[in-house]
Design goal:
Oligomer: single chain
Structural class: mainly alpha
Shape: globular
Distance between the termini: 24 Å
Length: 250
């Protein structure tokens, strides 16, 4: 792989997905941090994250694992379990008395950690896809992947910034909190180009690990905070939108 020729498209692709996180975080300037707007946005984010866990992460992980000697289901199943266990352990660590002072801060810290963690393999996937496109692989497939992940990142940025605002943080501090969760995508997207040969073998495990982390957060944090009629409707809209985009753009 021509490293320099691959770095530029990888950086551009992951900067787009990062900008979508920042754009989602910017909704804090429009919606504020009311409980109603938060529940609707968290429901929408939960739907998007559930669909993304399947179509953006698990199915690609199974497909990529099928090219190795291992059973295709093994990296997906093991990765999901490891991602969920890791987030459960992190949840237990954050919930120690006096760690954050109140359950809302604990919930926000877990959500930030989970979204930041799952952005790492997503950034790697986008970076690798654009790097391979520069070498002759499908540019349309890389673009579709970046677009799908970027759309998914929008409600994730909001899912961090809005609760921070409700917790009493300023709009700008809430915005930067949501934005920083996506900063790992261009960082790891460029890094994966530098280690592309070894990263391809790890991608099924990383993608499924991210899926497990996302599913844990949806069940443990997002669903309980969006259990209103508006939140449930937003969840369904988010799920259907992400599923449709993933299938249509794949």
């Amino acid at each position: 792989m021509n490293m320099m020729r691959a770095l530029v498209p990888a950086a551009c692709g992951t900067l787009f997905t990062f900008s979508m996180t920042a754009l989602g975080a910017a909704t804090v300037f429009l919606l504020g941090g009311t409980r109603r707007s938060q529940g609707t946005m968290l429901g929408f984010a939960g739907g998007v994250m559930t669909a993304a866990s399947v179509w953006s992460l698990l199915l690609p992980a199974i497909e990529q694992a099928g090219q190795s000697a291992l059973p295709a289901w093994l990296p997906a199943a093991a990765g999901v379990a490891l991602g969920a266990v890791f987030l459960a352990a992190l949840d237990a660590l954050l919930s120690r008395p006096g760690r954050f002072g109140d359950p809302l801060r604990q919930s926000n810290a877990l959500l930030f950690a989970a979204i930041t963690l799952h952005n790492i393999p997503e950034g790697m996937a986008v970076g690798l896809a654009f790097a391979l496109a520069a070498e002759g692989d499908s540019l349309a497939a890389a673009t579709a992947l970046a677009l799908g992940i970027g759309i998914q990142n929008f409600p994730e940025g909001a899912a961090i910034s809005l609760p921070l605002r409700q917790m009493g943080e300023s709009r700008w501090r809430s915005f930067w909190g949501g934005t920083l969760s996506g900063a790992v995508e261009p960082l790891f997207g460029v890094t994966v180009v530098l280690i592309a040969a070894g990263a391809r073998a790890l991608m099924p495990w990383l993608l499924s690990f991210a899926a497990g982390a996302m599913l844990y957060v949806v069940v443990a944090e997002l669903a309980p905070q969006s259990d209103t009629r508006g939140g449930v409707c937003a969840y369904m809209v988010g799920f259907l939108l992400m599923m449709t985009l993933d299938v249509a753009l794949s």
